[in-house]
Each structure stands twice: as structure tokens, then as C-alpha cells.
Design a protein that fits this description.
The protein starts with 10 loop residues before the first helix and ends in a 23-residue tail after the last strand. 46% of the residues are buried. Helix 3 crosses helix 4 (103-114), helix 3 packs parallel to helix 8 (290-307) and helix 5 runs parallel beside helix 6. It has two domains: 11-307, Glycosidases (TIM Barrel); 311-400, Galactose-binding domain-like (Jelly Rolls). The chain is globular, with a radius of gyration of 22 Å. It is an alpha/beta fold and 423 residues long. The strands form three sheets. It has an eight-stranded parallel sheet with strand order 5-4-3-2-1-10-9-6, with helices on both faces. It has helices at residues 11-19, 29-33, 54-64, 103-114, 135-152, 173-183, 259-267, 290-307; strands at 21-25, 68-74, 117-122, 158-160, 188-190, 198-199, 214-219, 227-235, 238-243, 275-279, 311-312, 314-318, 321-339, 347-353, 359-363, 370-389, 394-400. 22% of the residues lie in helices and 28% in strands. Alpha-L-fucosidase is responsible for hydrolyzing the alpha-1,6-linked fucose joined to the reducing-end N-acetylglucosamine of the carbohydrate moieties of glycoproteins. This is alpha-L-fucosidase. GO terms for molecular function: alpha-L-fucosidase activity. It comes from Brachybacterium ginsengisoli. Its EC number is 3.2.1.51.
């Protein structure tokens, strides 16, 4: 019997997976109106941040340990955070910097200063565009906006297409794909059209276990029953998006999630082999909320305390797994596994054992990374990793001692809203 075909990631997909952690910035006219979604009628004049500091945003993301950021260049309301030539509904019509400002440019410049990669969110659904009901006219309008973003701000790491509000609407995905291939061939495309990565299927930040990279369908948003078939199976690794607070846009009175909850999200996203995109919304000043910033600082410190001083083992690959030998006996309570993915995701099950055969941890997929928190710390100089699958190969085994570090405390009852926040 012929062995099954294994789909392989592109080098760009694999680089995105290894980046692992991004920060989302939801910012726009909704910030000033106390809304999650708006209908495109909030005056551009309401957009007037008094202390906008994109450097603070990007620096905080970097210090958290993220590798990239994604900015809502245009949300469903249609307001553009750059001076577009396609509509008057943009920063050019606002009092901010006398209409001469460009939020996208400021974030892009901050990314260059701090060694971060830039992603941009451009909502296909546009509640302000007068041409929206004319499909051909709107497709041309949208392509013009996308062209501006793809040519003005340097290399893009990710283009984020949100399926909310678009049920039953078919955009010019062929044209969109051609434009991206021409202008930003290295950018990951989120979830729609010529997608190279997919939405995880919830806004709680939680990946499935097993975390599978090959699929023939994808969800479009959190508010509709809209699982969409994509034909033949494709290699589409998932991204878990979740907000640090209840809402996506900043609103007064909301509080950030607890540190334990954020650590739990980390372990159920990055720890299962998915990417995590954590939203931290700037406030009406254009600054990060002090409570959110403090929680980001705590979160980053806790991640470094848990994973900042790992010991990598030497691997002796054998049939059915590998022996992982540490430089010397070490105390540890976390084991991180990494799979070689250049030939595709191949591990379907695995076990981590001590030399005496004691099972320390077990699971299904490994992928770009799989982090196990052990029930209790052990002191060992070697491990045996058993794997099942089609020609699986381990890339690395790293042990971590998180003694004294904050521990995950995921609120299992928490769920992000699943009702669309329409006006």
C-alpha cells in the first residue's frame, strides 16, 4: 500500500509558526465611541488620540516576548488608519495631527526600530463604503486599499482577513491572491481566499488537541455557523486570537484577564503547537491602558521565569522515537518537544518517559512545539521520547525548571462573546 501524501509547509509558513507569538492592536473610531462594531457613521472627527505612542505599543509587545504585531488598519466600520486615496473616511479627515497623521506608518516605523514584524488587518466587510453593494465596484475599491497597504509600509508578515459580516458574500479572492503574490509574497494570509494560515475556531485563545496543521475546512468567524470547505486538504496552521480584556476595542471599566488565565491560554495555544495572537487595545489617548500594560509586564516575566533558561538535550534518534540526553542531571517540571516540520506534520501520538519507563507525559500531535507541564518536578539526566506517525522525526527536546514561577490557572468557564455586537 502506498504511504499517504504528507503536505509540507512553505518556508514562510514554517517561519511564521516558529515566530509563534503576536500582539493584536484593535484601534480606530470604535475606540472613541465605546463600541466593538460600528456602522460607518461615527464621524472621522471623533478620532483624536492626544498622546498616540506606537513605539510604546510595539516595545511592550517585544518585551512580552512576541515576534510580530497585527494592526487593524480598517475594521468593519470602514475607517482607515492611513491616509488612503479610496475614501474620505480616514485619519486624513480627523483632527489628529491636523489630518496629516498615519497610524499604520507609525506602527511600521516602530516595528523597524524594535526588530518586530508587521501584520495588517483589512476587513473585507465595510459598512461605510457606498459602493459595497456593487460587488464589482467594491472589489476594485478593496484591491486599491490592499495595494496601498502592500506598497507603502515595507515587508508584511501577515495579512488578516476577518470573515465577520461576510456570510454569503464572495469577494474577488483571485484578484486579492494575485496582488499579494505580486507585492507581498512572503506574507501569511489569514483564513480567507488564498489562505496560508487559519483561524483556530474560537476567540478564547484555545487550540484543539490534537493540533492539526492539515485541514479541508475553516471557520470564518465567531458569530455564524460558517464552516467553509476549501476543497482539497491544505497545510494551514492555526492562529489563536484572544483579547487581554473582554472586548476587542478599549472600553472604560474593563479589566485585563488574570495572569493565571493568560498563562493557561499560552499553554493551550503555543503549548499545543498553534500561534497565539493576543489583543491589547490602545485607549483613547493612543496609549496602552496602565492595567493592561502592567499585566503584559507580569505575563512576560512569568513566561521568562518558566521558559527562559531551558536545557536542550542531545538527541539520538532511534526507530519509534529518540533518546534525549542532558549535559548533566537536572531538575525540571516542563518538557518542550519540537518536531521537524520541513517534510510536514508527521507525529500523531507521543509519550515522554524516564529511563525506568515511568510515563511523565503523553499526547497526540507535537508540531512546531509541544509543552508539557509535569505533575511534579523530576531530576533526570535523560528521557525517552516515543512517537507514532508516518516517518516522524524530533528536532529538539528542551527541559525547563519553573520552580517558584506563577502557574497557569485557566478559567475553563470563560468564553468570548458569540453574539455579533451589532448596533
Amino acid at each position: 500500500m502506498a504511504s499517504p501524501t504528507i503536505l509540507r509547509p512553505s518556508p514562510e509558513q514554517l517561519a511564521w509558526q516558529k515566530a509563534g507569538f503576536g500582539v493584536f492592536f484593535h484601534f480606530g473610531v470604535n475606540t472613541f465611541a465605546g463600541k466593538e462594531w460600528s456602522d460607518g457613521t461615527i464621524p472621522a472627527a471623533d478620532f483624536d488620540p492626544t498622546e498616540l505612542d506606537a513605539d510604546e505599543w510595539v516595545r511592550a509587545a517585544r518585551d512580552l516576548g512576541a515576534a510580530y504585531v497585527v494592526l487593524t488598519a480598517k475594521h468593519h466600520d470602514g475607517f482607515c488608519l492611513w491616509p488612503t486615496g479610496t475614501t474620505a473616511y480616514s485619519v486624513a479627515s480627523s483632527p489628529w495631527k491636523d489630518g496629516k497623521g498615519d497610524v499604520v506608518a507609525e506602527v511600521a516605523e516602530a516595528c523597524r526600530r524594535h526588530g518586530m514584524k508587521l501584520g495588517l488587518y483589512l476587513s473585507p466587510w465595510d459598512r461605510n463604503a457606498e459602493c459595497y453593494e456593487d460587488a464589482a465596484a467594491y472589489d476594485a475599491f478593496y484591491l486599491a486599499q490592499l495595494r496601498e497597504l502592500c506598497t507603502r509600509y515595507g515587508d508584511l508578515f501577515e495579512l488578516w482577513f476577518d470573515g465577520a459580516g461576510s456570510a454569503g458574500r464572495e469577494y474577488d479572492w483571485d484578484g486579492i491572491g494575485e496582488l499579494i503574490a505580486e507585492l507581498q509574497p512572503g506574507a501569511m494570509v489569514f483564513n480567507m481566499g488564498p489562505a496560508t494560515i487559519r483561524w483556530v475556531g474560537n476567540e478564547d485563545g484555545l487550540a484543539a488537541d490534537p493540533c492539526e496543521y492539515v485541514t479541508d475546512s475553516t471557520d470564518l468567524n465567531n458569530y455564524d455557523e460558517d464552516v467553509v470547505g476549501i476543497g482539497a486538504q491544505r497545510y494551514l496552521p492555526p492562529e489563536c486570537d484572544v483579547s487581554i480584556r473582554r472586548g476587542w476595542f478599549w472600553q472604560p471599566g474593563e479589566e485585563p484577564k488574570t495572569l493565571g488565565h493568560l498563562l493557561g491560554i499560552h499553554d493551550r495555544s503555543i503549548g499545543l503547537g498553534a500561534n497565539l495572537l493576543l489583543n491589547v487595545p490602545p485607549d483613547r489617548r493612543g496609549r496602552l491602558d496602565a492595567e493592561d500594560l502592567a499585566r503584559m509586564t507580569e505575563f512576560g516575566e512569568a513566561l521568562r521565569a518558566r521558559f527562559g533558561d531551558g536545557r536542550e538535550a542531545t538527541l539520538e534518534v532511534t526507530e519509534g522515537g529518540a533518546t534525549a540526553t542532558l549535559p548533566e542531571a537536572a531538575r525540571f517540571d516542563h518538557v518542550e518537544l519540537r518536531e521537524v516540520l520541513t517534510e510536514g506534520q508527521r507525529v500523531t501520538a507521543h509519550r515522554v518517559l524516564a529511563a525506568d519507563g515511568t510515563v511523565l507525559a503523553e499526547g497526540a500531535t507535537i508540531g512546531v512545539r509541544r509543552i508539557h507541564r509535569l505533575p511534579e518536578a523530576v531530576e533526570l539526566d535523560s528521557l525517552r521520547i516515543e512517537v507514532e506517525g508516518t516517518g516522524p522525526v524530533l528536532e529538539a527536546v528542551i527541559v525547563h525548571d519553573a520552580t517558584g514561577a506563577p502557574v497557569p490557572d485557566l478559567d475553563e468557564g470563560y468564553r468570548a462573546p458569540t453574539e455579533a455586537p451589532l448596533d
